[in-house]
Design brief:
This protein has 376 residues and is an alpha+beta fold. The chain has a single domain, classed as Cytochrome-c3 Hydrogenase, chain B, CATH 1.10.645.10. 45% of the residues lie in helices and 15% in strands. It has a four-stranded antiparallel beta sheet with strand order 1-2-3-4. A three-stranded antiparallel beta sheet has the order 7-8-9. Helix 3 packs antiparallel against helix 4 and helix 4 runs antiparallel to helix 14. The longest helix has 29 residues. The two termini are 35 Å apart.
Length: 376
């Protein structure tokens, strides 16, 4: 600790505070070495790597078929969304054309899990700010989404539902029942949560004007997803660089401009409404689509041609990209992921100075990060 007199003639105590890595508000084993002047943060050094599992090297040491389930474990709150960029990259190397029905099923499940991921994000945010009761409502809503996935493929979190060339299974009666519950409950949840949180005086004091990010800074630091759109940048891959069959649908993307913690919360709640509408539209399209193949014809032994391919998707946390390089063998030569949570936290060192310790908790939670993806 260094004690010195500042310009105002008052004593200033500068010291370092370890924030994590074993701390619930860091959303995993994230470590921030925070330099404090009294109660005010004046510098942050973000440290990662405590959870590192070497996911890319694991994929490189296994066959393409063996490696696919590992992608679920990156952002384990939206496992099926992480299957997609990896599978799309491998399919580019294989030269595979996916059946239309399989593309619609990929989109439907990704949007359902996007909804489930957002539920966790807003619920944990409220809990991190002290309102423990607020976490149970979105988790209850998330259960309906997980029931849909369980009915479809037998797994709730790490589904590995998307396969090379298509998907594991088509929708069935059990899925339809779970889907109808999701459709019935989501509007009630959205209305209730807006009433519970939006105008809560404590929540407003903890989030308004905290952790402000300008549009320029958001782009300079390569933010993506809701954190980018909450700062006034209108960009969503599903609309602006469509994949699968997203170009068949009108993708509505809310955009806010405040760029603070409150805006990031509201951004996700507005997007939940649009996601819910899109889920209904994709489901209706599936019902109208004639029954057909859900898997393309691919070799039983996958040996993609030598070369490299890159694919990217709009995941719940932001843009997830995947580069796969092949040398014509059973396993890839190189796999590399562009992980949105990893890139998003780079801006912490810019926006956290000037805030109190309690504000740092609010900033971290507003980014909706997951350490499995950061330290993948």
């Amino acid at each position: 600790m260094n004690t010195e007199t500042n310009k105002q003639g008052r004593y200033s105590e500068v010291y370092q505070l370890n924030f994590g890595p074993q701390h619930p508000s860091t959303h995993g084993v994230l470590h921030m070495l925070v330099e404090m002047d009294g109660e005010t943060c004046i510098g942050v050094d973000t440290k990662i790597g405590y959870l590192h599992r070497g996911m890319e090297k694991l994929l490189e040491s296994r066959t393409y078929l063996q490696g696919l389930p590992y992608t679920d474990r990156l952002d384990y709150l939206a496992g099926v969304n992480n299957n997609l960029p990896y599978v799309l990259a491998v399919e580019k190397l294989l030269g595979v054309e996916v059946p239309a029905r399989a593309s619609l099923l990929r989109m439907l499940t990704c949007e359902i899990m996007r909804l489930a991921s957002y539920m966790v994000g807003v619920g944990i945010y409220i809990m991190d700010l002290g309102a423990v009761s607020g976490v149970f409502y979105p988790f209850q809503e998330r259960e309906y989404a997980l029931d849909c996935m369980s009915a479809l493929c037998g797994a709730r979190m790490t589904q590995s539902y998307i396969r090379y060339g298509g998907v594991q299974a088509d929708i069935n009666e059990e899925f339809d029942v779970a889907y109808q519950k999701l459709v019935a409950e989501t509007p009630r949840f959205i209305e209730m949560y807006h009433k519970l949180v939006d105008e809560n005086e404590i929540f407003l004091r903890r989030t308004k004007g905290i952790g402000v990010i300008s549009a320029e800074d958001a782009m300079d630091y390569a933010l993506t997803g809701p954190n980018l759109r909450a700062s006034g940048v209108d960009y969503d891959l599903r609309r602006d660089a469509p994949y699968c069959l997203y170009d068949r649908f009108k993708i509505e993307v809310p955009v806010l401009t405040a760029g603070d913690c409150y805006a990031r919360y509201v951004q996700r709640m507005l997007e939940v409404e649009k996601i819910f509408q899109l889920i209904k539209e994709i489901y209706a399209a599936l019902k109208e689509e004639p029954a057909g193949e859900i898997m393309a014809k691919i070799p039983k032994v996958l040996k993609p041609a030598a070369g490299e391919a890159y694919a990217q998707t709009e995941n719940p946390k932001g843009i997830m990209g995947c580069l796969v390089a092949s040398e014509g063998k059973l396993n890839p030569l190189r796999v590399h992921f562009r992980r949105p949570s990893f890139d998003n936290i780079a801006i912490f060192e810019k926006i956290m100075p000037g805030h109190k310790v309690a504000d740092l908790v609010s900033i971290i939670a507003s980014f909706d990060i997951v350490l499995g993806e950061i330290d993948g």
